[in-house]
Hints:
Blueprint: E1 3-7, E2 12-14, E3 20-24, H1 33-38, E4 40-44, E5 49-54, E6 59-64, E7 73-79, E8 94-101, E9 105-110, E10 115-120, E11 123-129, E12 142-145, E13 148-156, E14 173-181, E15 188-191, E16 210-212, H2 214-223, E17 229-233, H3 253-258, E18 265-266, E19 268-269
Parallel strand pairs: 2-8, 4-19, 9-17, 15-16
Antiparallel strand pairs: 1-3, 3-6, 4-7, 5-6, 5-18, 7-8, 9-10, 10-11, 12-17, 13-14, 14-15
Amino acid sequence: MLLDTITPQTGTTVGVAMPISVVFTNPVAAKARATVEKHMKVSASQPVAGAWHWMGDRRVDWRPKTYWPSGTKVRIDADMTGVSNGNGRYGVHGYTHTFTIGDDVRADVSVTGHTMKVTRNGKLVRTLSINAGSAQYPTWNGTMAVIDKQEKVHMTSCSVGISCDKGSPNYYDLTLPWDVHLTQSGTYVHYSTGDPNPGSGSARGSHGCVHLSMSDAKWFYRQVKQGDPVTITGSPRAKAPADNGYADFNLGWDQWLAGSAAGEQTTATL
């Protein structure tokens, strides 16, 4: 049993909603999960209560009970040497990742109000005009930590299961700028050539993404980092599933603990 990935990458600065996400190369049996959790020690520069939660049998995330305090330094020591996955495989390596929690940057999106309010360390920085998903393709509700961002992304309706028929009014094949990634299912905050002036006066709706004007999309892209929470309200759609990217905070604390084998813990001190 080996660790496939540990996120965030070591040495990075991330947002207050960023979980530690560990993906294994092989499935971990339920009977082995408490032992695996106990061999992944989370330390921080100040005490933080949190817990692991299994997103299936290969991925497990550690998140704090509430958002990380800004400025916290975090380390995960995953000593998998000799640890069984419960299916006849054993770990042969140890892994250490360190990262820092940066400024508390949050974006609160009102679908019905067509606005996004961006705050930094508790102070409102800017209110932006947005359009979200149409009635046919509503945007996910809930809190999604930024997965990553790219200056350009090639987006197609076929790749997300909307339409592969070029004659369909819902078909698209576009490369669009200033893309902030929210879900693995394809939700982004970005500029759209088909919706250049979003806001309450526009009847345009997206296929589930959040649209900003070109200047606002560029500004927002430069403000946010991996792990910053984007919270969307007012959509008729349910909250994004916790494992659809890093939507970990869409689970209440009791729900989160129900997916942990070892239960709540307080970080060790760095």
